[in-house]
Amino acid sequence: MTQIIFRNILPFITPITFFYIIISLGWKTFLNPVLDIGILMGIVFLLSIFHFCFFFERSLYKGYKSMIFLSFFILITSFIFSVGQFFFSKTDKTTDIQITLLICLTLYILIRITYFMRIIYVKIHNPAFIFITSFVFLSFVGAVLLMLPTSTVQKISFIDALFTSTSAVCVTGLVVLDTAKDFTYLGKVIIITLVELGGLGILTITSFFSYFFMDGISFREGIYISNFLNTKTTNNVLSLAVKVVLFTLTVEIIGTLLIYFSINKEKSFIETDSLLFFSIFHSISAFCNSGFSTLSEGLYSESVRFNYLLQFIIACLLILGGIGFNILFNFFTYIWMTIKKYFYRVFKEEYLRYPAHIVTLNTKIVVFTTFILLFFGTIFYYFSEFHFSLIEHPSFTGKWIASFFSSATSRTAGFQVLNLNKWTPITILFTIFLMWIGASPASTGGGIKTSTFALALMNVISLSRGNNRLEIQRKEISSESVRRSFAIIILSLIVIYISILIILFFDPEKEILSISFEVFSAFSTVGLSLGITSNLSNGSKFVLIILMFLGRIGIFNIMVGLLKNRINSHYYYRFPQGNILI
Question: Which of 577, 518, 525 is nearest to 551 (CA)?
C-alpha cells in the first residue's frame, strides 16, 4: 500500500523539483544559502526514500525498475557526499554542496524525462513530429531559463531570449546580444548546455540514458532513433546512440585540453573569467558547429586573432562535427582494420582480408566533397582577400591558416577570424554558396548537405551525357535519393527567397546583400553575420528563428511529418506515364 502511494506521489514531485531548481538558480541572490541547501537536501533525501521503497514492489517491470535503481544511485550518492561535506569539511563548502545537489537533481529530472519520452514513443506514430517537437520544446525551455534574473546582466525581452535559445539549440550562432557582456556565468552555462543538447539531439540523449535501463528498446523506438541518426537500419541503433554520445564527449574533452594549452601563455589577455571555462565552452561550441563564443568579438578578438594554433584546433573540431557520425565511425573502422591487417602481417605472418565494401559509397562521396570544398575554399579566400581582410595577417602561414579556417567555418559554424566588413562582394557571394551547401548528413551542421549537392551535380552531369540513371563507382543511385536531393534544393531556395522578401518588408532600409547573407546563414545554421542581426525588427528576428528551426530540423522532415500518410497506398497501383515538355 505504501509503495502504491509513493508511486502516485512521485510524478508530482518531479515538476515541483524542476520548478524549485529554476527558483534556486534564477533567484539565488534572494535566497539564504543555508536554507537553500537545506531544501535541496530535503528534496534529495525524500526522493531517495521514495525510490528505495520501490525496490520492494514486485509488480514493477524491468525497465521501470532499472530507471528507479539508476535514479536512487545518483540521489543517494550525492546526498551522502553533501552530508559529508556539510559536517566534516573544515572550510566553507556551501557553494560546492549547492552545485552538487543541483547537478544531481538535474540528472534525476533528465532520467525521468527519458522515461517519459519512451512512453511518448509508444503513443505517437510519427517520428518526424517527435523530432520537431523536441527542438521546439527545448528552445522555449531555454528561452525561459535565459530570462531568469541571474542569467543576464540586465533584463532582456522574450524575443531576444527565444532568438538566443533557438540559435543555441539549432547550433547556429547568430546573436542579438553580446554573449560575453549581456549574459552572466549561469547564462553562458545555459547557452552551452543548449548547444550540446541541440547538437546531439534530445532523442540521442534519451537513447543514451535508455541504454542503462537494461530492457532494450522497442522496434518503434529504434525507427525513431535511426531516423534522427540518419541510419537505414534499426540493428544496434541503441548502441550507436551511445557511441555518438561517448565519441562526442571524448572529442570535446580532447578539444578542451588542446585549446587550453594553445592559449596558456596568453592567459592574461583572454577576456573571460576562467581559461578552463573558455576552453570547455569553445570546444563544445566548435564540435557542435554553433559558433557561440565567450569573447565579444568572437575569435576575431585581439587576444586570439593571431593565435593560429588555436584556429587550426577549432577548425579541426568544426570539420569533425560537420562531417557526420556515420562517416566518422566508418572511417575509423577502416583505419582500425588497416592497423589490424599490418599487425597480423608483421607479427603473426598472416594475411587479413578486408570485409567487402568496408568504406561505403556514402563515406567516399561525403569525404571527397568535403575535401574539395575545403581545398578550393581555402585557395579562394587566400586570393580574394589577400589585399583586404587578410592584410592584417603578416605571415605567410597566418594567411593560409586564416583562409583554411574561413573555408571550414563558412559551411558549418559562425566563428570568424577575419573582419567581415572588409570582405569583397565576391567573397560574400562565395561564402553564401558555401553556407548553402553546409555540412554532411547526420552531423551537427546544417545546409542542404554535401551529399545532396554532390548527388544533384552528378545527376546533372549524368543527364548531360544522355544517361537515364545515375551510376557512381559501379553502383546505381536510387531514384528516391536523386528525387529527394532535388526536392531539398528546390525547397531550400523557395524558403530562402520568401524569407528575404519578408525581411525586406519588415526592414526596407537594410541592404539586400546583407539580408541575403543573414537569411542563408540562419537557414544553414552557420551563424556568420555582416552585423545587422541585433538591429533587425522583431518581425525579422522571428523570421530568422523559424529559418533556424527549418534549417536544423530539415524542411523535408517537416513536410514528411505533416503530410505523410500512415499507409502509402500509391505502392499498390501505377497510372500511365505522361510526358511534359521541359
Answer: 525
Residue 321 in contact with residue 287, Cβ under 8 Å? yes
Q: C-alpha grid cell for residue 245?
A: 554520445
State how far the Cα of 217 lies from the Cα of 349, in Å rounded to an integer.
43
User: Which residues have C-beta within 8 Å of that of residue 171, sequence separation ≥ 6?
Assistant: 195, 198, 199, 288, 289, 290, 444, 445, 446, 525, 552
Q: Is the pLDDT of residue 327 over 90?
A: no
Contacts of 117 (CB under 8 A, 6+ apart): 130, 202, 203, 206
pLDDT in tens, 335-376: 887 787 777 777 766 666 666 567 888 888 999 999 999 999
pLDDT score for 224: 53
Say which residue, 480 or 265, is predicted with more confidence.
Answer: 480
User: How many other C-beta atoms can be found within 10 angstroms of the C-beta atom of residue 475?
Assistant: 11
Q: Looking at the predicted structure, is the pLDDT value of residue 569 above 70?
A: no
Q: How far apart are CA 31 and CA 38, in angstroms?
A: 11
Among 230-239, 383-392, 545-554, which stretch is predicted with the lowest mean pLDDT?
230-239
Q: How far apart are CA 401 and CA 312, in angstroms?
A: 7
pLDDT tens digits, 204-215:
665 555 555 545
Q: Residue 121 burial by CB count (10 A; 0-12/13-18/19+): exposed, middle or buried?
A: buried
CA atoms within 13 A on the CB side of 397: 6
Task: Using the structure block, give the residue that is written with the C-alpha cell 599490418.
Answer: 342
What number of other Cβ atoms are within 10 A of residue 518's Cβ? Answer: 27
Question: If phi over 0 gives left and psi between -120 and 50 gives alpha, with beta otherwise, what is residue 493?
Answer: alpha
Asked if 165 contacts 151 with a C-beta cutoff of 8 angstroms, the reply is no
Helix (H/G/I), strand (E/B), else coil: 475: strand
Residue partners of 113: CB distance under 8 A and separation at least 6:
206
